[in-house]
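ok so for the tutorial part 2 we go from a plain amino acid sequence to predicted structure tokens. step 1 is just haveing the sequence, like this:
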Amino acid sequence: MPTSPRPIYYGGQAVIEGVMIRGPREMAVAVRAPDGEIVVRSEELSGIYAGRVRRIPLVRGVVVLYETLALGVRALTWSSQVASGRESGEVSGAQMAVTLAVTLLLVGSIFFVGPVLLTGWIGRVVGNHFIELIAEGVLRLAMLVGYIYLIGRVRDIQRVFAYHGAEHRTIHAYEHGRTLTPENVREYPNAHPRCGTAFLLTVAVLSLVVFVALGTPPLWIRAVERVVLIPVIASIAYELLRLGQRFEDNGIVAALYRPNLWLQSLTTRDPDDAQIEVAIAALNAALAVESASAHAPRDRAAAEEPLA
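step 2 — the prediction. this is what the tokens look like for a chain of 308 residues:
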């Protein structure tokens, strides 16, 4: 008896006045231009974005993290140009490398090294280094949630978050086999189990467990450990998200992963029909590239699951 092929999963992210959709071998970005038209750009991906390395357990988490940053920077740059009516060309490889390096340096310094330095005195004062490590993890989680909450108060970011909701709802509708219309898409929730926000929360909670297990070596060693282990923790977090989605109908698993969905109330807003139309345009463009791709039949059974 022939087995049915695994479905192809799509993910993506919100950009400036638009949505980027990522599939197994393609990316599409749709943006609302100042004249009201939806401008769409799509392309077939290759190399690390579509290679076999994306299917290796644990390794694929690092690849997904990298591509989320790299493709996200490209999509954000282009969308800002279209939304402002001033297109000025592609991002060069050097610009991309510098942007990614600065981003990772800031994230590592603020959210991983920062809590170590801010809580390093607690063990000496209370005489319990376990409490110090718990405080570090809780502070890291509080910083993440606080940051998301504060940027969500900015009006321009609220529009991006509305497009984030439109992206999630559109992917929900597609995964449920619905015709992609604003009316159908609007029926689905803003939260999605593969969301990048869920990924960040999983990383924060998992890092608390890992760093407690590592104990309290000298402060400088702890700071180095926090940065060096980011790819490892990200890889495990990605596998946990995949596992959670696979068993999402299990009551216990659903309860464990519910905070991931709650946090998305901070990073999504209810979209209007115009924003949903943009998300639909982006997904339809990605589907068109997938359908026309010579690789589609071969890769359908091995499609990976990008972050939504």
